[in-house]
Amino acid sequence: MAILRRMSSYLKPYLSSLVLLLVCMVAGLLAELFMPRILGYVIDRGISQRSMPNVLRYAGLLALLAVVRAALRYGQMITQERLGQETVRSLRRDLYARLQQLSFTFYSVNNTGDLMSRLTNDVSAIMDFFGFGISEMMSSILIFTGTLVMLLIADWRLALVVCAPIPVLMFFAFRFSGVVGPAWEKIREQMGKLSTTLQENISGVRVVKSYGREHHEIHKFADMNESTLDANIDRADIEARTFPVMSFITGISFLLLYWYGGRRVINGQLSMGTFFSFNWYLWSLIYPVRFLGFLISLAQKAIASGPRVFAVLDSKLEIPEAADSQPLPVIQGLIRFEDVHFAFEDGDGTPVLRGLNLEIQPGQVVAVLGGTGSGKSSLINLIPRFYDPQEGRITVDGTDLRRVTLNSLRQQIGIVPQETYLFSDTVRNNIAFGRPDATDAEVEAAAQAAQAHEFIAQLPKGYETRVGERGLGLSGGQKQRIAIARALLTDPRILILDEATSSVDAETEHTLQLALDEVMRGRTSIVIAQRLSTVRNADVVMVLKDGLVVERGTHEELLAQGGEYARIYNLQLRPQEVINAQLDLGSASL
């Protein structure tokens, strides 16, 4: 019930529509309740008395009530649909807004496919209930109550007889609701798993094909599909065992009407018109009870979906904004890590950074090197507050990052991640994602700085060319250069490059590095380095190991020390020196 109450809170802004729905429902109910009675008058005061004027009079009244009932029914259905759609629109809006606020930790512990299932299948189940189920449930209760009163008024003895099986019918209806709920909950869980498997396969289709694992993925999906089928069959089995029993009980009520009611008509204790009105009323009495099973099933689906949807809305904000947080003014770019300890909350608790202390001066270009697990990615992810440290603090220009608004902080940071993501949109809109109000000239200037303008100009529609999902149709290097242009367009005070040139060939990287050197001038730039040219051109090279800065200095200074940097240089960077020398030699010979 708590879930239903919470879902019902989304109806509060639409009280006027609720009042209109209630008016249509009650007025339509009154019209429906009087129609069988008017039918009785057609028979008793018209046909039985051989009075054609009475037949026409009451038949006309019956037709008028039918028209009024149809109009009211239309008003009820269109209003309840609007209420359902408005409710779901508000719910989707809140869900999407919450997803934008949640941190990377939330996405690392929740599968994308399951989240998509919550935002589609589960929200649709809630819409079905609010757009149809809840009003029909109220209407059914009112019709049942009103019909029972009309039966008792018409002939209380016959009413008690024909209603005798109704409590048994109600017992099966409520029993059905108790067992079908868990069945629908299981279906929702299976649909989430099925969506996850589908999403992962589509996203990783290149890997699947590269390793020839198509048949394995087909069998894995088939197993998930089979489990979903079994869950639906179990639910159908519950319905199949319940609905025929309810139909049988319904038939008993009509048998009692024809047996006892027929005797009363024959004995002159009941008019034929009342008998036929009882037949109509009995349908109006039984239908809500039988329909209640479907409505309860609908409610159970919504109740099963509710916790999955509200789990997203109730998810903890790992990166909250303090109540007294202030916008960060334009910064110079002085970054300090003060005894920073950090471990991923979704991991095994192993520290990634262990009391890290470092200072990066405004305008410095800092190259960060280190082995796998050394803390490089954690370092750059803490600066824009994608994560928060468990201990210590990080400041920019002396201001603790936890005391400023996230938007004002991130607007002054440009990030080019190692894994480039482009949206299914035009090249121009992808570059202008962080600054949608940028002019075409500004977008083009950013592309030129990123060495992307030349290949963009050769695309079928230039900057208006649409790229596929994740940049489908572009090479890795082209996508990376667009991502660099996207970061540069925001004119950030702090620029973070996470192996930003890793997807370009050596020759392109050579020209791109010249552009980046110009772009990084005057900005605090932090570069996760995999290229020799990046290291050589950096003001400071920092080497991380086990979450600590173990070496710091220039390329020449660290190489002379013969320590961790020298080891990394000999393993990764020295071969690049040979390639660069060959490129320089080739350029000189032209």
SSE order in H/E notation?
HHHHHHHHHHEEEHEEHEHHHHEHEHEEHH
Please give the alpha-carbon distance between the first and last residues.
Answer: 79 Å
Strands across the major sheet, in which order?
6-7-8-3-9-10
**Strand element count:** 10
Largest sheet: 6 strands, mixed
Do you know the CATH topology of one domain?
A: ABC transporter transmembrane region fold
CATH architecture of one domain: Up-down Bundle
* Mean pLDDT figure: 83
CATH class of one domain: Mainly Alpha
Description:
The protein is an alpha/beta fold. It is built from 20 helices and 10 strands. It has helices spanning 2-8, 15-47, 52-101, 104-109, 112-154, 156-162, 166-203, 205-210, 214-266, 272-313, 376-382, 406-410, 427-431, 440-449, 453-457, 476-489, 506-520, 532-537, 555-561, 564-589; strands spanning 335-342, 353-360, 365-370, 391-396, 399-400, 413-416, 494-498, 524-528, 540-545, 548-553. The model has no long low-confidence stretch (mean pLDDT 83). Among the domains are: 2-313, ABC transporter transmembrane region fold (Up-down Bundle), CATH 1.20.1560; 421-491, P-loop containing nucleotide triphosphate hydrolases (Rossmann fold), CATH 3.40.50.300.
